User: Which sequence fits this backbone?
């Protein structure tokens, strides 16, 4: 008879303590708790099992190297960011075919911002604006936005995850982008 | 710093941890959303189907001492509610004046065992078929829903949790003094429907948080959602519940398209109010339309006309007004004619004539010269069923007709309409004249059309034929038939077809690289001739057949079930063997899932409570996860240690498979022995549950035993074949199987009625 799946029972604080102690158990605990999340983050961008797995391994290495000194409050989100950036860097180095998906998604969001947009202070300012914008949206909409532009899911994947129709997801994304554009204008980013 | 795609991506990486974790696949928010969707769909289905199903099954509810219909007229009756394994005797009075022969309940009282206090919630002197029963025990106060006549209790609210934003509330967190503050009864179709709204007591002071439950007490309760109101009175719909405080009406909407409108009469101003009606817009024609309204700024106005409301909203800069008849969901465009033509900002409108249906598309030209569609409106009631596929930047919009047999490509600048399929369908054999087009896709110079091919409407299997038209040569390519769901994928001029079990999460969507591990660079389209085996197929590539394997047998599949409100994931391999489960709620006892048909059906026991009175068990088909919400309310535990599977017709997939089953406890309690029988269309088998394990080796093919019996009795002589239909008789003392057997000869059919007892004996009756 099959046995039940093991539970990811350690808290972030416990896992971080393992990192601080330089215990390799930190990595297995991270893998157990967040391995699937990191994988899905990487896969959303890379669209390849093999590449995503390699990216997740790179993520563990980077986590190992960055904690300490970093003390992330949310290990899952911290690792997700690393996985995402690692995947994006990897995509940039890949051939055009493999870039297609993430490029298309990036283009979609970038289209919210006119070509003649003025310079802005720094990336953090834009992140802050994104946070403000998303926080003003209802959870279901901001989840769709984040799934699309952070995790880079296809609309079909989002539809499946949220039990909406593909058309409904696309509709909501379209509206969100339009809203985001207005928001940027209001925030002075568009100029 | 110049804004580039890279910097924008970088900024996206810098969004807050909360937003990242909130959107993670297993986040509470997404789980809640999925649970909500299930609940809404299940509730809608329950409203429609429950009456028929229960009537057909002639169920005898647990704890019942008075069977509805047995004793019509006036008098005092009793029933027993079982809570925490203890009896709560109920006494009620029938006045014999109700619409049914079994009278109307006029008074009710309940007694509680030692250590418990119980009373039915205040209903201002009115009694209903199902009522909230408030129970206090050891400082804990909780509510169950109790069916007065049968004593059946539904304790879903006791364990219910709902969340709004980041805060999760449980029933305990709700203000004690507002238990059942609002309850409604809905009995239009004979299905009792109750909603209970409560205000959370530990909500932030700036908010008022309400939870609304609505449920069919004969099924498992459904949490519909909650509404938040901040101190300024603004509403947030954490779970898509929209309340319209005027005239006692509200919409329940789900952002995936399900919309319900509920009207109730609050003229009495009391806490117990009759719901006048409930409308399922999903079943009506507003599926696509109302969610879009509810998604935007809008106002709802009531009219002099009963059941007619006017929804006004702005979309694409255009003021719109629609009259909605809540009885059937039909709509009439009552927008001011002058305002229809007006635009705001850069929004433009183009009206298309799609085979006589007028469709208006609102769109704008973007700064970069591309075109963006804002929305689509129709002046015909049928339009909201249109599926709209946008080409956001191509200057065209693709519209699909409600019957799925028309695809129009509409050019926004010119208003021209291209009917893509119309004449092509005419060239198909007449068999397809009334078949729905299920998929349509352009692939280079070719148009692929997939169309229903099932000849029998009642067939549970869905078959599709696929056609390919060459737009240049007008040649019609040969067709292949596919079983169940399948998808077509294109990449440039390449086309791939993939077929898979409905709703089983395998992988996907497929890119060519994912689909073919061989990394074939597809530069031309080719047919893939799948053999019907969903795991393997043959790709004809440049005239050479290639075997393709889309999932190796060892690769894990994943099916998610919602059991008693909790998510349980089963991971399984190609043979249907469950490799592991994901059960964050610890709902399922270790090793308490058992394959019962050698295929993909599993008997799942919940909470290691099988020998208890509250035992619950489910049958889950790994390949049919679509019906999860149907499963959860099917196999309620019965008293006297019996889990009855006789009502499996409630469950779609079991119904289709002609499943019936019963598991019952042996008289010898100490032996911890249970035995059961199940039947499907091909098997009639018996199994035992002994020493906490299903003895699956004991499966006995009863159809063979039946044939042996008939043969030994000399009844088979001269007949070519035997067919049998089985029905369980759930006697209190001796569960047994009633078999209707037909013996077939060339021109002769003889029918026999037999009883099969679970001691293995047949008897002709």
Assistant:
């Amino acid at each position: 008879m099959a046995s039940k799946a093991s539970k990811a029972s350690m808290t972030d604080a416990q896992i971080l303590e393992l990192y601080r102690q330089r215990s390799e158990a930190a990595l297995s605990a991270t893998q157990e708790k967040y391995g699937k999340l990191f994988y899905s983050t990487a896969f959303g961008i890379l669209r390849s099992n093999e590449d995503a797995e390699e990216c997740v391994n790179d993520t563990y290495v980077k986590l190992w190297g960055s904690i300490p000194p970093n003390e992330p409050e949310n290990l899952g989100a911290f690792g997700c960011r690393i996985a995402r950036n690692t995947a994006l860097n990897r995509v940039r180095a890949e051939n055009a075919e493999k870039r297609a998906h993430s490029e298309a998604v990036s283009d979609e969001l970038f289209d919210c911002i006119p070509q003649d947009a003025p310079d802005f202070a720094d990336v953090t300012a834009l992140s802050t604006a994104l946070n403000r914008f998303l926080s003003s949206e209802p959870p279901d909409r901001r989840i769709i936005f984040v799934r699309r532009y952070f995790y880079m899911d296809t609309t079909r994947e989002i539809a499946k995850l949220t039990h909406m129709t593909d058309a409904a997801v696309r509709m909501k994304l379209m509206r969100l982008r339009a809203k985001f554009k207005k928001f940027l204008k209001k925030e002075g980013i568009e100029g | 710093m110049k804004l580039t795609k890279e910097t924008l991506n970088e900024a996206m990486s810098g969004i807050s941890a909360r937003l990242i974790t909130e959107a993670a696949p297993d986040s509470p928010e997404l789980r809640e959303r999925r649970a909500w969707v299930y609940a809404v769909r299940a509730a809608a289905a329950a409203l429609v189907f429950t009456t028929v199903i229960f009537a057909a099954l002639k169920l005898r509810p647990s704890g019942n001492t008075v069977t509805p219909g047995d004793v019509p007229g006036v008098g005092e009756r009793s029933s027993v509610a079982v809570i925490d394994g203890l009896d709560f005797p109920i006494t009620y009075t029938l006045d014999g004046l109700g619409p049914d022969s079994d009278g109307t309940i006029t008074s009710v009282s309940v007694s509680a065992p030692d250590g418990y206090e119980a009373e039915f919630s205040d209903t201002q002197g009115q009694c209903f078929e199902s009522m909230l029963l408030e129970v206090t025990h050891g400082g804990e106060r909780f509510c169950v829903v109790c069916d007065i006549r049968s004593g059946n209790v539904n304790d879903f609210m006791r364990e219910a949790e709902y969340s709004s934003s980041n805060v999760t509330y449980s029933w305990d967190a709700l203000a004690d003094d507002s238990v059942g503050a609002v309850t409604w009864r809905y009995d239009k179709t004979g299905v009792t429907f109750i909603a209970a709204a409560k205000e959370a007591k530990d909500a932030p002071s700036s908010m008022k948080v309400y939870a609304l439950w609505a449920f069919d007490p004969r099924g498992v309760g459904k949490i519909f959602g909650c509404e938040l109101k901040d101190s300024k009175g603004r509403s947030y719909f954490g779970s898509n519940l929209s309340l319209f405080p005027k005239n006692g009406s509200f919409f329940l909407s789900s952002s995936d398209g399900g919309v319900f409108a509920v009207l109730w009469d609050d003229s009495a101003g009391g806490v117990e109010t009759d719901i006048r009606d409930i409308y399922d817009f999903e079943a009506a024609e507003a599926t696509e339309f109302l969610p879009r309204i509810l998604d935007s700024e809008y106002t709802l106005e009531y009219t002099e006309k009963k059941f007619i409301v006017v929804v006004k909203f702005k979309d694409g800069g255009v003021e719109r007004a629609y009259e909605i008849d809540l009885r059937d969901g039909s709509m009439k465009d009552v927008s001011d004619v002058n305002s229809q033509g007006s635009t705001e900002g850069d929004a433009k409108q183009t009206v298309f004539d799609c085979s006589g249906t007028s469709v208006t598309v609102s769109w704008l030209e973007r700064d970069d010269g591309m075109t963006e569609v804002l929305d689509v409106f129709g002046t015909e009631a049928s339009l909201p069923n249109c599926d709209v596929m946008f080409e956001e930047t191509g200057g065209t919009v693709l519209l699909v007709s409600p019957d799925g047999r028309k695809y129009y490509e509409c050019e926004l600048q010119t208003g021209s309409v291209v009917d893509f399929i119309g004449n092509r369908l005419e060239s198909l054999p007449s068999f397809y004249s009334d078949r729905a087009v299920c998929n349509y896709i352009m692939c280079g110079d070719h148009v692929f059309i997939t169309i229903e091919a099932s000849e029998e409407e009642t067939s549970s299997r869905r078959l599709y034929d696929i056609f390919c038209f060459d737009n240049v040569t007008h040649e019609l390519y040969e067709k292949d038939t596919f079983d169940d769901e399948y998808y077509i994928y294109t990449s440039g001029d390449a086309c791939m077809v993939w077929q898979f079990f409905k709703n089983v999460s395998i992988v996907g969507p497929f890119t060519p690289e994912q689909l073919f591990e061989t990394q074939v660079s597809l530069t031309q389209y080719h047919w893939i001739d799948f053999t019907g085996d969903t795991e393997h197929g043959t790709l004809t590539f440049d005239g050479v057949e290639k075997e393709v394997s889309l999932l190796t047998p060892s690769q894990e599949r994943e099916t998610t079930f919602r059991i008693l409100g909790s998510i349980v994931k089963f991971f399984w391999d190609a043979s249907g063997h469950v490799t592991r489960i994901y059960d964050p709620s610890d709902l399922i006892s270790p090793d308490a899932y058992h394959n019962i048909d050698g295929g993909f059906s599993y008997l799942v026991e919940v909470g290691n409570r099988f020998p208890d009175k509250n035992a619950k068990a489910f049958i889950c088909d790994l390949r049919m996860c679509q019906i999860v919400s149907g499963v959860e309310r099917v196999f309620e535990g019965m008293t006297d240690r019996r889990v009855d599977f006789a009502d499996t017709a409630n469950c779609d997939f079991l119904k289709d498979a002609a499943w019936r089953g019963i598991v019952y406890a042996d008289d010898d309690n100490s032996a911890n022995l249970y035995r059961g029988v199940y039947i499907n269309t091909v098997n009639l088998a018996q199994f035992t549950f002994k020493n906490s394990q299903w003895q699956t080796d004991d499966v006995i093919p009863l159809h063979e035993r039946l044939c042996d019996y008939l043969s030994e009795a000399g009844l088979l002589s001269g007949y070519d074949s035997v067919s049998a239909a089985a029905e369980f008789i759930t006697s209190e003392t001796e569960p047994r199987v009633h078999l209707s057997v037909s013996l077939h000869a060339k021109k002769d059919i003889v029918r026999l009625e037999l009883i099969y007892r679970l001691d293995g004996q047949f008897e002709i009756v």
